[in-house]
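To assess whether ligand presence alters the predicted conformation, the chain was also submitted together with zinc ion. Input:
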Amino acid sequence: MKGPHVRQIQNYVCHCLGLKSYFQRPGDGRVHPHIPARDLVWAVVIGHVLRVTSFLRLEWLAHSPARAELGIKSDFGDDALAYCTARMDPETTRVAVAAALRQAKRNKAFENSRFIGLALDGTGAGRTYKEPCPLCDPVKDAQGEGHGSLHHFVLISVVGAGLTLPVDVEPYGPGDSEYAAAQRLLRRAVEHLGPRFADYVVGDGEYATAPFLHTSGEVALPVVARLKENLPLLAAAVRARFDGQPPQAVFQEGDDRVEVWDYDHFDAWETLDWPEVRVLRYRQHKRDGTVIQAEWLTNFPIIKLGSLSFYRMAKSRWEIENGGFNDGKNRYGMEHICHHEPNSILIVWLLILLALVIERLYRLRYLHRGEHGIRSAMDLLTYLWLSLGSRSPPGTG
Ligand SMILES: [Zn+2]
């Protein structure tokens, strides 16, 4: 078999990413399983790589002539997928995703990056009008009228390292908060990835509050967070210092001209246990004339991090939107609820993360070495479907 193929991906996953034992024992909680969990879990993962995102369509794949080529030994129904995912232990999959990322780092997947970041952000997905599950958060309009429910979660992702690789998710239902979920998620992700995996944490303005900044300190990671008006005293001090002053430096970054102001002796606010706060203001001039100005705070010392690197860390936050939520929802089925049960929803989200990690590392780091001419996700997707000999084109599922 020449060129990319599902079996080659399976080989890559088992031998290069070290996930063979995970697929043999993926945390199956069923008492008398008829269908091996390995088949079901691999089907969900490779199904999402192929953008087959509903359990019914996975059942169709498992009954198709392509089953053997997909590395799936037994066929199954969508009910088996629902039953198994509702009973799997999420911790096993979380540990496996982190182990794959650690292996990728050892395999030099990030070798051109000086700093590896972890970005966090929350979102809602899986809008439903059905009977609510415990994770269902009612959506209400300004008049208090109900419009179904959403399932909320925080995502943490590797950013700033040349490729965006999701790490873990933490759901938060009614009575919980994005903020509390993000702190649990950061602690767990660093525990799984190891203390020296990443170099910084990045988040938007909601994360620029003392408890979250202290959590980053507990896991020994410097933090870069957007400064907004939720910190009025610091925002005023920044204006007083930077407004009307010429920029301290100007960089050419791609097509953009970037002016920066950078100062590291602002007073910490009352509840924050930092000795002082460093703030960067940037004014980014795009070629089309648009100007974007923003301020970011950090506890990264100036001596270890120049203004341009600080700017790049701030900008790396966008990767979680683009390579995380947008790709995850629009292409890989994160928006779709396969089986409306909390554990199953979580397991499917985690398996989507694993599928994204596998697809990106395989395409951008493994195939990259060959001369296949495959660069984009769409190229790989088309190639895989052609190699399966399927007469069904990839659906939008
Ligand atoms: Zn629900």
